[in-house]
Amino acid sequence: MTSAGKAYETRQLIENGAEEVDLMPNVGFLLSGMEREYADDIAGVVQAAGKVPVKVMLELPLLSAQQQERAVALSVSAGVAYLKNASGGAVGVATPEQIAFLRRLAPTHVRVKASGGIKTARQVRDLVLAGADLVGTSAGAQIMAELLGGESAATKGERHRHPSQY
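The chain above was modelled as a monomer; its predicted structure follows.
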């Protein structure tokens, strides 16, 4: 989708009641060294969103260390409310190292969201301890069952603890 199309769609979503926006920036711009275009892609959506928070999906596993740092800096300068390590599990599993990296580079007013392959309460705990303000998972019910003492495929054989012990 074009940058103008993303901004237009963002305005439409907000007019229809969206309370936050997840943005897939054009990673191809960044990979091609087109930093201005990458930043403008993000800034257009942030501007269109107004006061509605924008969460940018950085796709860290696809980027070199230098590109990761630039993606964070450009996203922050464009005004995002959240930095997400990735769009989800297809790109890779969220790691405490990725989250700690984002937390280290993000100013205090920018929040960090962990996303991708998060299936256990232990992962959630490790990501929060690394600096995640928010965790995205499609396994929420399974994680809650684990926290409340139920068996799950991901935890079978592990000793269950009270949620306060995680």
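DSSP finds seven helices and five strands in the chain.
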